[in-house]
Design goal:
about 45% helix, single chain, binds zinc ion, two-stranded antiparallel ribbon, mainly alpha
């Protein structure tokens, strides 16, 4: 009977170890892709808010909604954090943000999103970032703003090339606007931050803050924000004309669902 020399035993062990970790990687990748395809479902690794924070989330969300009603949906898209606090103090219909709520909003902004599974970049580092009026342009009939320059020019080109059946469905989103959307998603997901961030970038992480925008088909409603949009003639035209350089392609590894409606500018 022959016994393997000690170094070949070590080699064999190393080889086994490597194959096991490759196998584990494959299993992890399959489980990740499955999770992303079923982004609206909960997953065993998901991170949830605790009960107290969830209560604060609800009251902050409602107050943000009252600010939005006060300033209008269009202006709310570009509202800064400080402007939001000022409105809340000045208008009793909103009511000043108590410290527990403003601290909570700050925490949502500064929290490391990788901890709940979002791996996209943080593109805005300051909670109080301002979008100067001279740098933005209100797009007629849409209620949305675009940055003057590259974004505005690209959208005009898309409009020219695709004609009247294409529409801007979301333009600039300030930290406040993104926070409001993210809190709405977190309510929909019953406090599941991971599930919320699979379909919406957390505050500070959205490229809508720095130039990207969304387009849709006129009359297509909320289907514009589903994979259904990828089945439209309009989407095919965008692809054919080379507009589609996706921020969040199918099977991306950033923890975000497929977003065919999102136009990358920056
Ligand atoms: Zn988008």
């Amino acid at each position: 009977m022959t016994t393997p020399a000690p170094d070949s035993e070590a080699l064999l062990r190393a080889f086994r170890h490597q194959s096991m970790s490759l196998l584990a990687d494959t299993v992890n990748m399959n489980s990740y892709l499955q999770k992303m395809e079923n982004f609206e479902n909960s997953h065993y690794e998901d991170v949830f808010l605790d009960a107290d924070s969830y209560k604060t989330l609800i009251s902050s969300f409602k107050r943000l909604g009252r600010v939005q009603n006060l300033v209008g949906h269009g202006n709310f898209n570009v509202l800064s954090f400080d402007e939001m606090l000022n409105y809340s103090k000045r208008y009793s219909s909103v009511g000043a943000f108590p410290k527990v709520e403003s601290d909570f909003l700050e925490h949502v902004f500064s929290f490391n999103a990788k901890e709940y599974g979002f791996f996209g970049d943080k593109v805005i580092s300051e909670l109080t970032a301002v979008i100067p009026a001279r740098e933005r342009k209100k797009m007629s009939r849409t209620g949305h703003f675009l940055y003057r320059g590259e974004s505005d020019a690209l959208y005009k080109k898309v409009e020219r090339d695709l004609g009247p059946s294409i529409v801007l469905t979301s333009g600039i989103r300030s930290v406040v606007k993104q926070t409001h959307l993210f809190l709405a998603k977190t309510i929909q997901s019953k406090g599941n931050l991971s599930r919320a961030s699979r379909s919406l970038a957390p505050p500070g992480h959205s490229y809508h803050g720095i130039g990207d925008f969304d387009v849709g088909k006129v009359g297509y409603g909320s289907k514009n924000f589903t994979s259904e949009f990828a089945k439209t003639k309009e989407f095919q035209r965008l692809v054919d004309l080379g507009y589609v350089d996706m921020r969040y392609p199918l099977h991306n590894l950033l923890g975000v669902r497929y977003e065919p409606w999102h136009i990358k500018v920056v």
